[in-house]
Amino acid sequence: MTKTAIIIPARYGSSRLEGKPLLKVNDKPIIQWVYEKAKSVKSADVVIVATDDERIFDAVKAFGGEVEMTSAEHKCGSDRIKEVADRHADFEYIINLQGDEPMIKKEMIEAVIDGVKNHNADISTLIRPIEDKNEVENPNLVKCVIDNNGFALYFSRSKIPFERKENPAPFYGHIGIYGYTRKALTTMTTSAQTPLEISESLEQLRALQMGMRIKTSIINEKPVGIDTIEDFENLDRKSTRLNSSHVRT
Fold this sequence. Notes:
- The structure is a single chain.
- The protein is an alpha/beta fold.
- Helix content is about 30%, strand content about 25%.
- It has nine helices and twelve strands.
- The model is unreliable at about 240-245 (pLDDT under 50).
């Protein structure tokens, strides 16, 4: 029997906020908030935290979560989740859920699972409408254009599409949660970088340039990740918002 697994890569070291998975909100570490959201997803069979740090390993064990140690040599979360997936031959669909997004909603994760399982896709992800002109111009927010069936045509740090005429197509911002088929995850993590990926520093362009199909689901809110101490303090003030919302596929 094939399974759908949510794997949460979590590392202690961070140049901007060291130890962030263990920072506490309402007396629970951030990694526990993320784990519990993942466990609430009915379409997932397994939830595993993947870490290279014993402090995170022990914290997950302490709240009753499932966790596996991985190599400290991995350069990205995709490599870390592949190491775990390689140990479990029955994992056919693998969701890469970041361990620093405690405000992720279960509906968002469900949409990613649906995208990769039910739409003949290799990979799935989330996008959101952008209304703020400053965000459209911001290279740190990755933009996405999609076809009529919700498959990604391109991702860019530039403003896409270009506005030559009035009433342009909508702008969408990318949200970095991914669903992979087992084959797609293996291909992504064992293939060399492509020119488009190197140019824009966007891993998902490797998939597109190799001909993979990326299904997107549109959500109508902006989830908040924890990258800095300011992000954490803001989350702590708004921790009552750790609930759910809706998505459209």
